[in-house]
């Protein structure tokens, strides 16, 4: 089992910044790729970004490229999402997730943290 707890959400004006954090615990985390997803009201959950624990490979959705940066701190077992130049359309519930490096499916999810961007 992998336990994930997100924090850092809140209300921010358009153009502002927020930093989300995900504290991970459980199994050997080096075996897992970590990801951020988001779900806006009435819409499906979508991929935002991911990062491997070894090698620092990162991937970002086109909608956030150049604005969001995913990073991890292996010593603290945390994954962060730095969000800059926020737009109202970034408003959503943001989830941290984990999957085995060998799998495509994310098996572990946090409870989510709300991000609201006002215009």
Helix content: under 10%
Structural class: mainly beta
Task: Indicate the overall shape.
Answer: globular
Counting DSSP E segments of at least 2 residues, the number of strands comes to 11
With helices defined by DSSP (H or I, 4 residues minimum), what is the helix count?
Answer: 0
Unreliable residue runs:
none
End-to-end span in angstroms?
40 Å
Compute the average pLDDT. 92
Q: Mind explaining what this structure looks like?
A:
With 119 residues, this protein is an all-beta fold. 0% of the residues lie in helices and 55% in strands. It contains no helices and 11 strands. The strands form 2 sheets. Strands 2, 4, 5, 6, 9, 10 and 11 form a 7-stranded mixed β-sheet that branches. Strands 1-3-8-7 form a 4-stranded antiparallel β-sheet, with no helix packed on it. It is globular and about 40 Å long. The termini are far apart.
Features:
single chain, 119 residues, mainly beta, seven-stranded mixed β-sheet, four-stranded antiparallel β-sheet
Helices and strands in order:
Blueprint: E1 2-7, E2 10-13, E3 18-26, E4 32-39, E5 46-52, E6 58-60, E7 68-73, E8 78-83, E9 92-100, E10 108-109, E11 113-118
Parallel strand pairs: 2-11
Antiparallel strand pairs: 1-3, 3-8, 4-5, 4-9, 5-6, 7-8, 9-10, 9-11
Question: What's a concise summary of this model?
Answer:
The protein has 119 residues and is mostly beta strands. It has strands spanning 2-7, 10-13, 18-26, 32-39, 46-52, 58-60, 68-73, 78-83, 92-100, 108-109, 113-118.
